[in-house]
Design goal:
Number of helices: 8
Oligomer: single chain
Number of strands: 0
Number of domains: 1
Length: 194
């Protein structure tokens, strides 16, 4: 780990410790991690093909509010913990967005407007893909919690193999084998007709 990365982790940990006791600490924390969270949100939007109706900046803002509204400020211990919570929040927001899109497609409480059929089909396909992937990872987690978390960290947070090894406390090679197993399972699971 580089000196700059270590310094940033220390700064974030100190800001997390000061939340609720120091005026402006939440704002300074947001400034310190914003670029990383924005990159994470952009990556998740791309991975989940969330479409253009969900902007990265709005996603970051909503996730930040969600994490600090639901988890308060005392439970987040360090930068890695914060990033994990942000990845989960962003994932939940994207999945909820996809569910709303599908509900609107089926009529829901939406006001009916003439739309281009190609636009409706693309939006429906993107939302379906998000929900299919979310459902597959949930099924995987019910069979193997650790593998499900590993896949979620890789797919939704964009962690590379070395980061996953550090996160889980296993060797890089073990992570590679687990990801190969997970990829094979997901490929099979997602290709199955409903």
């Amino acid at each position: 780990m580089s000196s700059d990365s270590s310094d940033q982790q220390t700064q974030v940990t100190q800001l997390l410790e000061r939340l609720g006791t120091s005026a402006g600490s939440l704002g300074r924390l947001a400034e310190a991690v914003y670029e990383d969270i924005h990159r994470l949100a952009h990556f998740q939007r791309y991975q989940m093909q969330a479409g253009e109706t969900l902007r990265t900046t709005a996603l970051v803002n909503e996730a930040f509010l969600k994490v600090f509204r639901e988890d308060g400020d005392a439970s987040i211990t360090n930068r890695q913990h914060l990033m994990r919570l942000m990845a989960i929040a962003i994932r939940q927001i994207i999945v909820d967005h996809a569910r709303r899109q599908l509900a609107q497609k089926r009529g829901g409480d939406a006001i009916h407007v003439e739309l281009d059929e190609g636009q409706v089909a693309a939006t429906h396909e993107d939302a379906s893909r998000v929900l299919d992937m979310e459902s597959a990872i949930e099924r995987m987690s019910s069979m193997d919690q650790q593998l499900g978390e590993l896949v979620a960290a890789r797919f939704f947070a964009g962690y590379n193999t070395d980061e996953l090894a550090e996160l889980t406390g296993v060797s890089r090679r073990t992570v590679q084998r687990q990801l190969q197993r997970a990829n094979a399972w997901l490929r099979f699971e997602l290709e199955q007709p409903e």
